[in-house]
Amino acid sequence: MNRLNLRGFPKSERQIIAHGDKVETALTRAKVHSSAVAPYASLIAKGHAVLVVRANYKPLGAARIAREILAKFDTVDAGAATQEYTTSWEPERAPSVMKDHPLFLTLPGMATPGLISKSFGMRLTKPHKSKRTLTTHGKPMSRMFWPMKLISTKERSSSVISGGRQMSKMFWPQRLLSTGERKKSVIPGGGTPFSSRTGFRMIS
Q1: Which residues contact 185 (CB under 8 A, 6 or more apart)?
Q2: How far, in Å, CA of 103 to CA of 111, rounded?
Q3: 155-164 residue pLDDT tens
């Protein structure tokens, strides 16, 4: 059993039947072949034990691994009993995916199943309360270290220079932006584009 455990055989798929009043019933439930139930029950009555391995898909190559492990031990002759056979397999239906510990979120020592939070003697969550600030006294963080407001509510001006002047007027007397009508040519006198002088189109 220890060797099978180390190789990854599930606990539910390996079983030892060694004693009991209803040995034949236990062998049948363990899916032992019908021809081996009576011979095995007779050997158990003489003080022997039966190791049942249901080799399915876990671990991979389970049947081969089980044969290799059992071949290293001395066994008792069971006569003509069928000791290995193939049968149909269906997954077991259970109310929990964990057979050994179905209540895996239950703390040890709890008299009755319930919420884990009740075992601590205090609430782990509390009702949400909306707050305007993150400080405990309800004041903005700026008031904690500076008595004045950090944001001004005064009307904004169009210029940061005293008197409302633009930066361009500090070093150039004329306007930098013109509102006059745009010309089609940058050549003085409104000359034609340079490409027209070549006599053919530059863009097709």
Answers
A1: 191, 192, 193
A2: 13
A3: 777 666 666 6
The tokens for 117 are 């939070």
Encoded amino acid at 129, one letter: K
On whether the CB atoms of residues 39 and 81 are closer than 8 A, the answer is: yes
Per-residue three-class SS string for the chain: CHHHHHCCCCHHHEEEECCCCCHHHHHHHCCCCHHHHHHHHHHHHCCCCEEEECCCCCCCCHHHHHHHHHCCCCCCCCCCCCCCCCCCCCCCCCCCCCCCCCCCCCCCCCCCCCCHHHHHCCCCCCCCCCCCCCCCCCCCHHHHCCCCCCCCCCCCCCCCCCCCCCHHHHCCCCCCCCCCCCCCCCCCCCCCCHHHHHCCCCCC
Q: Quote the pTM value.
A: 0.45
Q: How many CB atoms lie within 10 A of CB 91?
A: 6
- Residue indicated by tokens 């389970």: 62
Distance CA 51, CA 17 (A): 7
Q: Choose between 37 and 103: higher pLDDT.
A: 37
